[in-house]
């Protein structure tokens, strides 16, 4: 297994610092409902769950009601704040959901779970950290449990200049997300997100986030899963069935 990079963040390096509150508005695409359903429907009724990178909690709030308990590992303090704020308004989840400041792949909770899932995280994980991440997932998977993930894709990284992706209004304010993508290597792109806030037509603030976007190809992912004793068994990354989730690269694995 290769050397594992440190994927922790600080208040200075957290890419979500200034824009976490806009994330649900500007980063939720048309396939979001299907993807949420994919992860929620896999959750075993009354079982235990582990979520890696819950962000603002889109998956968390759909999965948690089906489980007896759910642990969430989130490295971003800003994302944890959004998630905990949502949970504060849901007393029925007060005893179910535990949110921890943890970064993958180097985590150890000393227990196992029936359901382990990773959504919208792989783009942040370099390929040389992937097998260590899978080893951590396998270590925390109970006998008979399943692992679910997305972003296992064969797509070519596109190249496009900055363009507006989404725009939403709240009162007299308008919030926009513009994105540019530059391929660096076949499995690595450089992404620039520009967030703008307008009051009526006056530009108030601009925040720019630049980061790497890592691609995880199915064949390499399957090999790394098998190396830690997990076998791919379902998902569009495996079957290519032409469903609305095709572009999400979903995958389910079980212990061999």
UniProtKB/TrEMBL annotation:
Keywords (A to Z) from UniProt: Methyltransferase, Transferase
Gene Ontology terms for molecular function: methyltransferase activity
GO biological process: methylation
Every Methyltransferase type domain range: 50-147
Highest taxon above the source species: Bacteria
Annotated InterPro entries: Methyltransf_12, SAM-dependent_MTases_sf
Cross-referenced SUPFAM superfamilies: S-adenosyl-L-methionine-dependent methyltransferases
Stated name of the protein: Methyltransferase type 12
């Amino acid at each position: 297994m290769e050397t594992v990079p440190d994927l922790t963040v600080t208040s200075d390096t957290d890419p979500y610092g200034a824009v976490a509150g806009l994330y649900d508005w500007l980063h939720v695409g048309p396939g979001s409902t299907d993807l949420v359903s994919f992860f929620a429907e896999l959750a075993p009724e009354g079982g235990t769950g582990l979520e890696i990178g819950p962000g603002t909690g889109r998956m968390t709030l759909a999965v948690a009601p089906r489980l007896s308990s759910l642990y969430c590992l989130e490295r971003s303090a800003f994302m944890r704040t959004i998630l905990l704020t949502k949970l504060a308004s849901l007393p029925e989840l007060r005893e179910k959901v535990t949110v921890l400041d943890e970064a993958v792949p180097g985590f150890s909770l000393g227990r196992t779970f029936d359901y382990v899932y990773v959504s919208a995280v792989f783009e942040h994980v370099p390929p040389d950290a992937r097998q260590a991440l899978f080893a951590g997932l396998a270590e925390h998977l109970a006998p008979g449990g399943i692992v679910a993930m997305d972003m296992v894709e064969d797509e070519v990284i596109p190249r496009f200049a900055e363009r507006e992706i989404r725009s939403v209004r709240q009162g007299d304010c308008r919030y926009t997300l513009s994105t540019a993508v530059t391929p660096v290597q076949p499995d690595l792109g450089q992404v620039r997100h520009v967030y703008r806030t307008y009051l009526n037509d006056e530009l108030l603030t601009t925040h720019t986030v630049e980061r790497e976007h890592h691609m995880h190809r199915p064949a390499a992912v399957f090999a790394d899963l098998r190396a830690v004793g997990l076998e791919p068994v379902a998902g569009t990354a495996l079957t290519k069935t032409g469903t609305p989730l095709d572009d999400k690269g979903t995958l389910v694995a079980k212990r061999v």
